[in-house]
Amino acid sequence: MLDDVDPFIGTSATDLPAAHGLAASWWWPKPQVGNTHPGATSPLGMVSACAYSGAYPTGYGRYAKNTEGVPELLFDRLQASGFTHFQQSGTGAIRKYYNYVKVTPMVQALDALGEAWPLRDEVAEAGYYAATLGTGIRCEITVGEKVAVHRYTFPESSSARIVIDLSVGGLAIDLGRTVPLRAHCESLGHGHVQGTVVMEGVPLSVHAEVVNPRWRQMLWYDRRLIDGGTRLDFDSIRHTTLRPFGMLFMGPTRAGQTVEIRLGFSLRGCEQAARNLQLECGTEEPAFDLVREATRDRWRDLMGRVQVDGGTPARRTVFATSLYHSLIKPCFADDESPFWPTSGPFAFDVCTMWDIYKTQLPLLAALAPDRAADLLESLIRVCEEEGNFPIGYRMARGADRFFRQASALAHTVLADAQALGRAPLDWNWALVHMVDDLRRMYGEDFFEHGIVHPISHTLDLAYAHHCTAQVARALNDVHLAEDLERRSRHWINAFDPVTGLLRDSEFYEGGKWNYSFRLLHDMAARIALGGGDAEFIDNLDRFFGYGAGPVTQPGRRPPPAEMLAGYALNRFEGLNNEPDMEAPWAYHYAGRPDRTAEVVQAALTWQFGTGPGGLPGNDDSGGLSSWYVWASLGLFPVAGQSLFLINAPAFERSAVRIDDREFIVETSGHRANPIGADGIDRDPAPQYVQSVTLNGRPLDATHISAADVHRGGRLHLRLGPEPSDWGRKVRPPSASDQVFGLKETR
Description:
Elements: E1 40-41, E2 48-52, E3 79-80, E4 82-85, E5 100-106, E6 117-125, E7 128-133, E8 138-143, E9 147-154, E10 157-165, E11 182-189, E12 192-199, E13 202-210, E14 216-221, E15 224-226, E16 231-234, E17 245-253, E18 257-266, H1 270-281, H2 288-303, E19 306-309, H3 313-326, E20 331-332, E21 347-348, H4 353-356, H5 360-367, H6 369-386, H7 410-420, H8 427-437, H9 443-449, H10 456-474, H11 478-488, E22 495-496, E23 501-502, H12 512-515, H13 523-529, H14 533-543, H15 560-567, H16 593-606, H17 623-633, E24 635-638, E25 643-646, E26 653-658, E27 661-668, E28 688-694, E29 697-698, E30 703-705, H18 706-710, E31 713-720, H19 735-739
Parallel strand pairs: 27-31
Antiparallel strand pairs: 1-2, 2-4, 3-6, 4-5, 5-10, 6-7, 7-8, 8-9, 9-18, 10-17, 11-12, 11-16, 12-13, 13-18, 14-15, 14-17, 19-26, 20-21, 22-23, 24-25, 25-30, 26-27, 28-29, 28-31
């Protein structure tokens, strides 16, 4: 699996074959670029490192900032002025760009610092990135969980140097720069330097070393060496007073000589940064191969927990890379919180929760349950310290609440974890915070009126009340559970019973159609409100473009009129955007899993491919890639309901290892379909589930519990070329099943 990963997928503007069939009718509003980078990463680690050009959005590549259509070029070539750390992964216009601690190898004078040189001969794999600068220096980077190791192969020079710039941050776009507030750096002698820079309220410390007896370390300010200086202090930096500053190593090199620089990072000071460096690099010299192999082992272990059989080489590459992208974020920095002094997990880059809570966090819970529990513990601690559960959380002081996008999303993850019983949390304390958080921001209006605008927040808050009620009921707080469940029924206030769709309101990155088919906790009542199965299916068919012709996607700088016309289509946004990415499975609740199969296969065939342009939109910290992983396995997690929906998988057989157990999805009658990257010129015929067994017993329902998956077992799907009666009678559970005494049939 690991050998199939291509970190370059998603790094360039979308370049997929022209879609056929259903997928050709979908309209994409968001930027047509994956916004990933090919840099060195460690799974769920604190550090990432990649070539830095200043382009949008990670600092790698050539694109200017854009929010819709084909991205515009910021640079006409691939270039870099050095290598930075702490990049985002696939995010869009969230203005959280990092790119701190830039390291630049040079054979020029310090005056040339900041100049960008052409970048060529790139190589990338999990945990490793390499490229050659136009100066002729070959650059290789690997990272550990809290360290980065750079290896540079220099041409002959009497004064080669490796420059660490602590003053940089952000991007080379309008309003993209991050200015430090305070900083210090010092030369420790014997090839060691260290420094701390406060960026957005966070003290980021680095301890760096070069082991070369002919090289010396120095400090610099405003591109001038400070000969003999041992310390620089900046007590208050402003935009108007900022000048570049940092540390460097310099000395002679002969042609082909390699020099290694090791950097340890911490959010708790230089001493801890030095300890982190020693812990991961040890005393071996050099340490590059040691760290690279240790990181590759971590990737091999984590990615090895999913195995698939069959599929074309292109499909296997896309799947493996999707799994890789799904496991880069969030960042875990154990014992590193700069905001509270105690030990324990600290998680950041929960960007963007509204994208990852549906798909990526359930994947994390399955493949890395210990880390999933650590994330919840960290989020609870953030709530204690800052007063609310964040909707997004990054390496900065203060939760990024992103209140426009969504409300109360942590409740879904907590409810799933409690139902599985795998997170050793103080659940009574967690429940206190869950209840309190329901009254914050839009929650107060929801509490008083049972409806709030933007109307999608009504759905968020009603769902969060349901999730919290499940936790309260599990803890035997019956009165609280009943009160919460009563308020969870306010979802109905968001819908217009005449149209069966959401009421008119403001919407974030979509319209009311995009948000109308979310998987609510009472889908039976929601379908009844819209006129029953037939009306609901008719609306879904219109939404997914059945019978519609191909549409033209937005181009470069699409005018407002073009975007408004696209939104007026009221069409599925495909996997270019996440608000409606669970909508294909809404058919399950109306007894038409065959329609789910058709929509999902169209997306898997035409919306993902190999090469840099292989993603249809922002990967958003793995939210998009984890959708691909689940869809390929033939499962979809219903976040907050501890439930998985079943669909025809893309592979003949797959196995997910959860601790010491295995959940296997196997098929009979499976046909390996190609994807667009295989050069097909038609829409492959979909495959449909004919019958299912779970651990040898017939399963007429289109769902299984999350406990079924996590305890391990064998799901067998018999597939065929025509729709069947499977799943037409037994629907996934709804909250009203309990209210009216209905029982689920298995």
